[in-house]
Amino acid sequence: MLELVLGLFIFLGVHSVRIVANDWRSAQVRRRGAAAWKLGYTALSLLGFGLILWGYSLARQNPQILWATPKGMNHLAALLTLIAFVMLAAAYVPRNAIKARLHHPMVLGVKLWAFAHLLANNSLADLLLFGSFLVWAVLSFRAARQRDRLNPPAVLTAKASGTALTVLIGALAWAGFAFWGHAALIGVSPL
Fold this sequence. Notes:
The protein has two domains: 1-62; 65-191, no CATH class. The protein is an all-alpha fold. Helices cover 79% and strands 0% of the residues. Helix 7 (105-120) runs antiparallel to helix 8 (124-150). The mean pLDDT is 93. Keywords: Membrane, Transmembrane, Transmembrane helix. The chain crosses the membrane at residues 35-56, 76-93, 113-139, 160-181.
């Protein structure tokens, strides 16, 4: 469990710099350069992610069950993760109405993903992993909206084709992961 906690601390810590120390981050980028900042950010993120994967896989071998999962939660989680995948796609597909309206769809997708997994899973490792990501996503979205109020983002134009492509890409990615990738990579079939 220590590996999981350490991985979460490193990964979410790196991803929380904009939440707790945005001015310091900006100063470091100016001082060291964007490339050096991104290299360090990436290296620490990969280290943290690797520790999360390792720690979670170790914790799953001897799970500490905290509650009984109600029936049907895996189906609700599947629906919520479908929406989360569409939100993730919305962060990258240009000219879609989802990003134009929500501004930070990736963080909202992480919220949904984490919440869905908390509904469907019931161990201490699940609570640590998905609960940490949910708390981080709530704080990250709040900080992003505060930055938006201080410096309003450009108005994004949306097209029906961009929105349709977003939904299609998100749904296809979800289907691939739900029906194949989750079992192959995580070892659990969600459906």
